[in-house]
Automatic annotation (TrEMBL):
Gene3D superfamilies: Outer membrane efflux proteins (OEP) (1.20.1600.10). InterPro entries: OMP_efflux, TolC-like. The lineage of its organism: Bacteria, Pseudomonadati, Thermodesulfobacteriota, Desulfobacteria, Desulfobacterales. It comes from Desulfonema magnum. One of its GO terms (cellular component) is cell outer membrane. This is Outer membrane efflux protein.
């Protein structure tokens, strides 16, 4: 969103304040607003002076604050914008959290097979008063157990307990009894939830998802570097086009002066000077448009590579475009893309996830059948020592062996989930095929664009040279009185257009190389950027 307010301060000077509003939310005070100031010619309309004094005062205060900022210049190359964007770009900084989150999810899934430990203690007292006797019973019990689930589905538990009971009967007296127990429990799934692949499903999925998060981060880094370079070359192009428009304006001004001189001595008609003056005004408009384009593209580049809106900064671009005719083998590029394109690698991981879900869903269609076994060794005595001694003898033991079977009627829910998993598997394989075709299309398109930019570079360079010769010849004819100002101005425009097209062709060739690296997944390798840098 962009608001423009004009405040006339002096008869010949106007002020414009631009407010590019960035993501205004509920807390406006915490948001950042970029302010720029510049002067424009005063509007001839007297009604524009009708501005409230309050708004005028606020504008002056804003200008005073902004004008105090020291204007600085930063020098940038392609490598500079790439690394600054990797360190500061907000989209990339946000995406960096995804692998960390997925790594914690892997740990959470692996925790399903960590041992569980439990401890407990109980104090009891029972008092009964009957006609025959009074009974006062007190008890103490402590227990501890450790259990673990294995990836095969087997669950085990080992526990120990010790208890002491004291019974006081008024007719008999006090009796103490000590008991110890050690038990082992084993549960083996026979059908449902049996097998390593079924029980480690969540771990497999979370590990694949972690790899997907890392690939997504890599793709974000590739996109960030590519976009930073595109913004660099767009700013370079805007600066060069501004220089062209300024030179074009100077040509028009010189020709206007020449036309007025020739008109004074009667060599040309006065209408020719009017045409020249009109052309100067038109080219001044072109310069104004080009200057605004430079400002906008500079602001976009700085925001992208610094992660914040900056004012008072000028940019000097040190790296100039170079032209080196490149020859690529389509088959090699395609194979390279299959090895490096993140969307293709993610599609392969999606297939692994789908296959894991198919195995799990198929297993869940089976009934629940568990084999369980329990073995306990007990010891009783009048003291702790006697109780442990009896337990160690192994003479007092107990055990059980059981089997259970359970299944929902028809098992419609589990069968539907299995069918869904099969469809998801087929869909993921279709997406992999789609990714292959997209890569093939992208590589061919990128090569075609590179070829086109290469041809345009040669044709536009020749066109500019011819436009310069045509203008020079027409200026000589005009000096001899054999041409008109209209023709000279027209050839000047042709030269300006040819120069702009030449700049566009050179920059488009650089952009085509950037796009080719991106579609083949080689952007990071091309610029020697490792994963540790982002």
């Amino acid at each position: 969103m962009r608001f423009i307010f004009s405040f006339p301060l002096f008869p010949a000077i106007g002020l414009t304040i631009l407010f590019p509003v960035i993501a205004l939310g509920a807390n406006h005070a915490s948001k950042e607003i970029c302010l720029e100031t510049r002067t424009l010619p005063q509007s001839p309309n007297p009604s524009s002076r009708d501005v409230s004094q309050e708004a005028h005062t606020q504008a002056e205060a804003t200008i005073a604050n902004v004008s105090q900022e020291a204007r600085t210049e930063i020098e940038l190359t392609i490598a500079d914008v790439s690394r600054k964007a990797l360190g500061n770009n907000l989209d990339l900084r946000i995406e960096k959290f995804a692998p960390r989150i997925s790594e914690e999810q892997v740990r959470a899934a692996e925790a399903d097979f960590d041992p569980d430990m439990s401890f407990g203690g109980t104090l009891t007292r029972t008092y009964a008063d009957t006609d025959l006797s009074e009974i006062d019973s007190r008890g103490e019990e402590m227990s501890a157990a450790i259990g673990k689930r294995f990836s095969s589905g087997i669950q085990t538990s080992v526990g120990v307990s010790a208890s002491k009971s004291k019974t006081d009967v008024n007719t008999v007296g006090e009796t103490d009894e000590y008991a110890t127990s050690a038990n082992l429990t084993l549960t083996l799934p026979l059908l449902k939830n049996r097998g390593r692949e079924v029980n480690t499903r969540n771990i497999s999925l979370s590990r694949n998802n972690h790899k997907i998060a890392e690939l997504t981060l890599r793709q974000t880094a590739i996109d960030t570097i590519s976009q930073a370079q595109i913004l660099y070359w767009n700013l370079y192009k805007a600066q060069q086009e501004l220089d062209v428009q300024k030179k074009s304006l100077e040509l028009a001004k010189k020709f206007s002066e020449l036309s007025r001189g020739r008109a004074k001595i009667g060599h040309i008609a006065s209408i020719d000077t009017l045409q020249a003056d009109a052309e100067v005004a038109a080219r001044e408009e072109w310069v104004i448009i080009a200057e605004n384009d430079v400002r906008n593209r500079r602001r976009s580049l700085l925001y992208f590579i610094l992660g914040r809106c900056e004012t008072g900064i000028t940019v000097k671009l040190l790296q100039k475009p170079t032209y080196e005719k490149a020859v690529f083998d389509e088959n090699r590029l395609f194979l390279s893309a299959l090895e490096n394109r993140t969307d293709y690698l993610i599609a392969k991981l999606d297939i692994k996830n789908a296959e894991t879900n198919v195995v799990y869903a198929k297993n869940q269609t089976l009934p629940t059948g568990d084999l369980s076994a329990t073995l306990s060794v007990n010891g009783l005595g009048e003291s702790w020592g006697k109780a442990y001694e009896n337990a160690g003898s192994g003479e007092d033991y107990s055990g059980s062996l059981g089997i259970s079977l359970e299944f929902p009627w028809g098992m419609k829910k589990d069968k539907a989930a299995h069918q869904i998993a099969l469809y998801e598997n087929r869909r993921s394989r279709t997406r992999l095929f789609q990714a292959e075709q997209n890569i093939l299309s992208d590589v061919r398109t990128a090569l075609d664009n590179l070829t086109e930019a290469d041809k345009r570079y040669h044709t536009t360079t020749l066109s500019k040279q011819l436009a310069e010769k045509k203008l020079s010849a027409e200026e000589r004819k005009f000096g001899l009185g054999l041409s008109t100002s209209y023709n000279v101005l027209l050839y000047q425009r042709d030269l300006t257009d040819a120069a702009v097209r030449t700049i566009s062709a050179v920059i488009d060739y650089q952009l085509a190389l950037i796009h080719l690296d991106r579609v083949t997944g080689m952007t990071l390798e091309r610029h020697a950027i490792g994963a540790e840098e982002f």
